Amino acid sequence: MTHQQAVELTSSLANKNILFEDGLTDTEIQAVEEKFGFVFPPDLRIFLQNALPVSDGFYNWRLALSSEETAASLHEMLDWPLDGILFDMEHNGFWADVWGEPPTDLPERFSVARRMVPTYPKLIPVCSHRYIPESPHVNGNPVYSVYQTDIIYYGYDLANYLAEEFRFGLSDQFQILQKPKHPVAFWDWLVERNNTPRTPPMYQADLTQAKTLLTKWLQQSLDEKGNRWLAEKRASFATPQPVKDVFLAFGMAPRMVGKQPLQLQQADLRDAEKLRHGLTVQNWTTDQAARILMLLMLPHDDVAAYTKTLNQLFTTADVGELTALYLALPLLPHPEALRSQASEGVRTNMGVVFNALALDNPYPGDYMDEPAWNQLVLKAVFVGSPLHRMVRLDERANATLARILRDFAHERWAAGRPVSPEIWRLVTPFVSDSVLPDARHLFEKGSETEQETAALMAVRSGHPGLLALATEKRPDLVKNAQNGEIGWPV
Fold it and tell me: CA gyration radius for the chain?
């Protein structure tokens, strides 16, 4: 990467409302490398020295030099790849053949992984759980999306990654890559492994940690009576229970623990995110948490028996029970086997149940196929649920969904009905000349919010015709969008 390329990338990201501080100095680069024990690859170093991105998701390396909390968070992210490997070793039977025959004892297998993984190129966090390898120490290393051993390429170099992640085009001074430039030991093997069909993983979160956290959150939220009942149920569920007893306890939860909000601190919310990326629990209530804890204590080694019990719960559940079941999806074992129940949730007419599936829930974005995801989004638009609370909303944008949403808008306009401005967020990555009449409608007949949305769509898409129209109609809003004064809801 050249300095000129770094300047262009920074400008493109700024147009996407990414905030920047002054770039890292040579002294700061050296201090970071010494503090965290790695060397920035050349392209990442050039990018960070041009300007330091500080918006949510990016890592503030400068602040990490003075803030122990930020430094601790970065240490956690540097440990994340190994922690994910250890998780899949314990829960999903992962083993790398290049390590030889696996020891029979789990701690010994852990010891092998802890010895071997540090010998491979160190992964450096770029944004969220996207990483670039430290070596080979050349321009053009790939960027990986890392979630346990589910590792894929998210860009064949840093520039291609940023353009893909934040949906902007690259000029002719960049090479559009079709494959990685450089091989990277071990991590490339994991990518290839993920392209090979294999048995679906049993777990999507650490079950033991999930139960520990739920118990902690409940204990700090319940009175003496509720905690006594919770302790009794935890003790009884420690051994397999008859299905009728499971149903009875599941139904009794609200009477025994109440329906008040969980009493959570910021540290609890961070623990939830660390447990399961995208998991949001601040709106959970005590009865929901108690029911989810019971679900996590069900025997699950026999997938057929486990899903049969869950299906019975879904079939007989009332509104409150269904809400807890859908909130539990991102923590439950055998996530692949739960897709049919998730699809049923899309069809429900009960708003609170639908929102439990659609909003602040990472399961749909991770496990629904494209048609099911598109149906979920369209239903959210139809019932008025806020799209910005759908986890992985931008990542799951697709051309088919953009067309469906535009058709929906046309039908609503023809009937004289309003359309949620949020739909244009999902159209923006796929703007073409055919969108110009829609944008003109927004500018000429839309509310102020809709006009802001049209200006934002023009700036974010970079489409010349749309940008010209927006500049003609509302140059003030175009300027606001370019300056980051307006943006998509978060």
Answer: 24
- Residue 238 CA to residue 233 CA, distance in Å, equals 8
Q: Which of 168, 194, 220 is the last residue of a domain?
A: 194
**Structural domain includes residue 200:** no
385 lies in the same domain as 405: no
In this structure, the answer to whether residues 132 and 220 fall within a common structural domain is no
Host domain of residue 475: 399-482
- Residues 6 or more apart whose Cβ sits within 8 Å of residue 50: 3, 6, 7, 10, 23
Residue among 157, 127, 136 nearest 1 (CA):
157
Question: What pLDDT, on the 0 to 100 scale, is given for residue 86?
Answer: 94
Residue 414: half-sphere exposure toward Cβ, Cα within 13 Å: 6
Please state the φ and ψ torsions of residue 356, each to the nearest 5 degrees. Answer: -60, -35
Which residue is associated with the tokens 């306009």?
Answer: 413
Residues 350 and 255 in one domain: yes
What is d(CA 329, CA 122) in angstroms, rounded to the nearest whole number?
A: 33
In a domain, 453, yes or no: yes
Structurally, the chain folds into a number of domains equal to: 3
End-to-end CA distance of the chain: 32
Report the number of secondary-structure helices (H) and strands (E) in the chain: 25, 6
Nearest to 418 by CA among 385, 389, 381: 381
What is the number of other CB atoms lying within 10 angstroms of the CB of residue 10?
19
pLDDT score at 201:
65
Type of residue found at 467: L
Q: Which of 389, 412, 437 is a domain's end point?
A: 389
Q: Which two tokens stand for residue 445?
A: 């007949």
Residue corresponding to tokens 């019932």: 383
pLDDT value of position 200: 60
Distances from the Cα of 403 to the Cα of 281, 372, 429, 431, angstroms = 33, 15, 12, 10
What contacts 56, CB < 8 A, 6 or more positions away? 490
Residue located via tokens 């102020």? 448
Q: Give the chain's length.
A: 490
Q: How far is CA 147 from CA 5, 340, 468, 475, in A?
A: 29, 24, 41, 42
**Alpha carbon distance 358, 22 (integer Å):** 38
- Grouping H, G, I as helix, E, B as strand and the rest as coil, residue 184 is coil
Q: Report the C-alpha gap between 100 and 379 in whole angstroms.
A: 50
**In order along the chain (490 residues), what is the average pLDDT of each group of 10 residues?**
94 90 96 96 96 92 95 94 93 91 93 96 94 94 92 92 87 87 93 72 83 95 95 87 86 95 93 88 96 92 89 93 96 91 92 96 92 95 95 90 95 94 94 95 95 94 94 95 85
53 strand-pairing partners: 20
- Cα separation of 102 and 81, whole Å? 20
Give the pLDDT confidence score for residue 158 in this predicted structure: 96
